[in-house]
Amino acid sequence: MKPTPRIPDAVKSSPLAIQGLTVSYDRRPVVHSVDFVTPPGSMTAIVGPNGAGKSTLLKASLGITARLTGDVRVFGKPFEVMSRHVAYVPQRSSVDWDFPATVIDVVAMGLFRDQRWWQFNRGRDRRLAMHSLARVGMEAFADRQIGQLSGGQQQRVFLARALIQDAELTILDEPFAGVDAATESAIIEVLKELRDEGRTLLCVHHDLSTVHDYFDHVLLLNVRGIAAGAVDEVFTAANLQATYGGRLSEVQLARLVSPASKEAR
Amino acid sequence: MSDFMMFSLVPLAVAVIIGMTCALLGNFLVLRRQSLIGDAISHVALPGIVVSFLLTGALSSLAMMLGAGVSALVTVVLIELVRRFGRVESSAAMGVVFTSLFALGVLLLEWHGATGVHLDVEHALYGNLESLIWFEGTGLAALVDPQALAGLPPQLARAASVGLAVVVFLVMCRRQLILGSFDPDFAASVRARPALVDLLLVTMVAVAAIAAFEAVGSIIVIAMFICPAAAARLMTNRLATQIAWSLTFAAVSSVLGYVLAGYGPGWLGFNASVSAAGMIATLSGVILLLACLFGPERHRSGAAREA
User: Which CATH architecture has domain A11-94+168-257?
Assistant: First the structure.
């Protein structure tokens, strides 16, 4: 029998603490021994090149993809018993948008855990779903078929489904991929509202130029964890070069790591 | 009237029940783009039945269903193996596995055929709806006569209980099924167990296919898993409405197909009838064709395919 390991306080208070997480496909590690303790109440970006294992890290943490080794805890307890506190917004492209469902049907899917199989009456569910839709400015589309929405509208519906879950931690996989500028700012407003309520956000993000504006913490990932911490401290030229394997130019880097020089442009 | 009771009531009821049961499951197969699994499982029932006959030496229903069940299981495992080690997509794996196993079944059948037992490929394909005769069904009174009811062909009760089991399964697991079909990653994140529900769905498909196989043959099963649901998808963008349409299409093709097969050739001046199962399957295909041509939702937005 293993003795119960003492859980550090940082892990106990973190909505998602990942320790030694390794995932491999076909014996090739795509995520290798990553440790990351999400600071509570933070807005954290996961940044790294294509194939760095950003989505895989999230999916393995959420039990969607099998992990080889590793420990994932939510407020110090195993994820499996605490998953109710976590909302997940998958990549928009992972879903069959041709599915015969309306916008409100999709948002109500976020209530899955509260619904019992014998309950058909959905008056309360509908009210909650309309409330979530209103927060993302989509209430006028409630009865629209999901396939008729634009990419940005689909992403807002996904966000509304996460809002209805009322979770401490919301995990988003590239929420700004393929959406228009108006949607991007609408989504970031909602995410900041959530953070101001004291909730935590963890977000795969690929636009390096907005990391400073949107996030307060960052995890730099390229199969292994390269660096993690406050954006001001960790989002440095040296760390970015290490993450992207030296593929970023000096000019790019200078703009990225110093918001002042970006505004001076 | 007594003719109808004796010769047509049971075949019609069995065809309608089985058609609607398969159509119900078919809705989810079509939405998951898994239609071929119904095809695969109903084909491999043949080798399963032949092997069970070779082992037991008798044509008992129980042994046949067991054989078909085991072979469905073997098929699902083989498909997964071919997909993983052959590195092909799952529909290609299904195609390879079920055609090979069906061919093996035909070979086994011919090889033992010399023993002269009534078990042939035709029976496996078309079933034998017309043979479900209710000898005690001599008039309306028989419907309330326990003794006459006891003489009903056992296929009717079997079809009805499988139908009931499918309805119970779909009502209880509807949310998990919908979630797992639309967004499997999210389903896993809220512990809706998409993999388990997937397995249950395939199991129900196997149960329905095997129960239907004996009574109506595999042609109806294959057609009913795909055609009514695929046609219904072209009629509406709401899942509940789609399911209602699919049930209607299944019932209409079953009743109309049975009537046309029995009397259609006569109306055309031929003194004959054609296979009811064949006609039912054909009609379901015609309905799908009509839905493709005139269904209101056949031009769906392309938003789904971007990204």
Answer: 3-Layer(aba) Sandwich (3.40)
